[in-house]
Amino acid sequence: MRITDDCRDCLLSRVQFQAALCTEDKGTIEEAQRAARSLLDTIWNDDVPAPVIAGAVHRCCYRTVGSTDPYRTLKYKDTLAARDVVAKIRPLISDFNSAVCAAVIGNAMDYGVLGHSISEDFTNYFRHEFSKGLYHDDSEEIAKLTRRVVYLTDNTGEILFDKILIEELKHLGAHVTVAVKDAPILNDATLDEARDAGIEEVADHLTTTGGGAELGINLDLIPPDLASAIKKATLIISKGLANYESLSDYSNLPPVAYLMMVKCEPIARILGVPKGVKIARLIR
Predict the structure, then answer these.
(1) Tens digit of pLDDT for each residue in 149-202?
(2) pTM attached to this predicted model
(3) What share of the chain is helix, strand, coil (3-state, %, to 5)?
(4) Would you say the C-alpha torsion 192, 146, 104, 124 has a positive or negative sign?
(5) Tens of pLDDT along 219-260?
(6) Which domains, ranges and CATH numbers included, belong to the chain?
(7) What b-and-e string marks burial along 115-143, b requiring 16 or more CB atoms within 10 Å of the CB?
(8) Contact at 8 Å (CB) between 275 and 263?
(9) Which of 23, 124, 173, 232 is 20 to 30 Å from 88 by CA-CA measure?
(10) What is the DSSP letter of 92?
(11) Over 90: is that where the pLDDT of 120 sits?
């Protein structure tokens, strides 16, 4: 997926948000915004997926404010909150389909989209969304393809809901390779957060998507173990918007199950669904 005009204001708003997480100095925040805007204007027409452009803009902001992980405190808080929520809602998860729904609801733990916020009472939010179910649900078809799975995670906190789904995948007899970000970008999960969440306890293999602080996934930068896992996979489970924006640009992949809350208009238009809905869509 290529970047759209809708993406500009969203991306620059996230630059302001994350700069303010690092400093109260208005001059530094404004400098980060100017640098990000200048870079965005320079690379706007590059023929690359949207996450490549967005990732470069975020890294520019990080350099300007002097932080490699602006979301560190928020990630810690989200992990604590998610543990509490999972303890309360775990009895609701009884099978693969309900685990898919739970993992999609977890995708709401996201700071990367203008206009989207995380509920302060995530337990009640989860219960409400769980009762509604998914707007589009290909869980039954997805379950048939789970012999060898590559699971591309998204946000910290969210991965505790992913852990539930990985457990259900193992119950189905799946071999599961989980890939997290190689370095901090937004509030995406890295190896540190994945290990803290206990992903190594349930997955067969834990790796990264490579490339450092990259949004989504760039198949030209992935490490050899992930490349091998994708080559052998019968299914890729892709969490979140940036992974969709990345993978939708590639062909000759195994079937991909896109699990996400559709938080922005460009992706809603491409998928033909309303903004704000939850989907588990299988694309072969």
Answers:
(1) 999 999 999 999 999 999 999 999 999 999 999 999 999 999 999 999 999 999
(2) 0.96
(3) 50, 15, 35
(4) negative
(5) 999 999 999 999 999 999 999 999 999 999 999 999 999 999
(6) 5-65 (1.10.8), 93-283 (3.40.50.10880)
(7) ebebeeebeeebbebbeeebbebbbeebb
(8) yes
(9) 173
(10) G
(11) no
Alpha-carbon separation of residue 164 from 10, 12, 39, 97, 265 (angstroms)? 31, 34, 40, 11, 29
Task: With CA atoms as reference, report the closest residue to 226 among 283, 148, 143.
Answer: 148
Determine contact, residues 156/75, Cβ cutoff 8 Å: yes
Report the greatest alpha carbon distance in the chain: 55
Length of the chain: 284
CA 259 vs CA 40, 166, 203, 228, 282: distances in Å: 28, 13, 18, 23, 9
Single-letter amino acid code for the residue at 67: S
Q: Name residue, tokens 């208009």.
A: 265
User: Tokens 């290909």 sit at which residue?
Assistant: 138
Q: Residue 95: CB partners within 8 Å, gap ≥ 6?
A: 168
Four-point Cα dihedral 55, 60, 66, 69, nearest 10: -10
| 3 state DSSP class of 81 | helix
50-66 per-position pLDDT tens digit: 999 999 999 999 999 99
Phi/psi for 8 (5° steps) reads -60, -55
State the DSSP string of 164-232.
Answer: HHHHHHHHTT-EEEEEEBSS--TTB-BHHHHHHTTHHHH-SEEEE--SSS-SS--TTT--HHHHHHHHH
| Gap between the Cα atoms of 106 and 110, Å rounded | 9
Q: How many whole angstroms separate alpha carbon 234 and alpha carbon 144?
A: 10
What one-letter code names the amino acid at 43? Answer: I
DSSP reduced 3-state for 140: helix
| Two tokens, residue 63 | 């350099």
DSSP assignment letter at 216: S
CB-CB contact of 112 with 14 (8 Å): yes
Percentage above 70 pLDDT, the chain = 100
